[in-house]
Design goal:
The chain is mostly beta strands. The chain contains one helix and eight strands. The strands form two sheets. Strands 6-5-4-7-8 form a five-stranded antiparallel sheet. β7 and β8 form a beta hairpin. The longest helix is centred in the first third of the chain and has 9 residues.
Length: 112
């Protein structure tokens, strides 16, 4: 998992990929759930499409209190997996195209 956070600190989105069966896996795992192969973090495009989202009006996470409302979304990546994160916009729509950006070494999403 250190490789994931190191990539975020560099401003790069990486997702685990199983070389034997060519599947991308997210959220991180110890081994490929399909074939048991070794997973390696690989750079991905960093673009995607909003699959679903919610607008948070009352946060139970101390670090986000006072920042409401904010948008959290699942993003469909072209690599065939979904990533989760905050969308940095006032409005969002299902199907909207987004690109990853990094703030405080965390992946977040901006509309294209």
């Amino acid at each position: 998992m250190d490789a994931y956070w190191a990539a975020c600190a560099r401003g790069e989105l990486v997702i685990q990929r199983c070389d034997p069966c060519a599947r991308y896996i997210h959220l991180p795992a110890e081994e490929c759930p399909a074939c048991g192969g070794e997973l390696v973090f690989r750079p991905v495009s960093g673009e995607g499409t909003v699959h679903t989202y919610t607008v948070v009006h009352r946060s139970f996470v101390p670090e986000f209190r006072g920042r409401e409302p904010y948008i959290l979304a699942w993003i469909d990546l072209p690599e065939g997996v979904r990533a989760f994160g905050r969308v940095l916009a006032d409005e969002v729509a299902i199907g909207q195209r987004v690109r990853v950006t990094f703030a405080d070494d965390l992946p977040q999403w901006r509309p294209l």
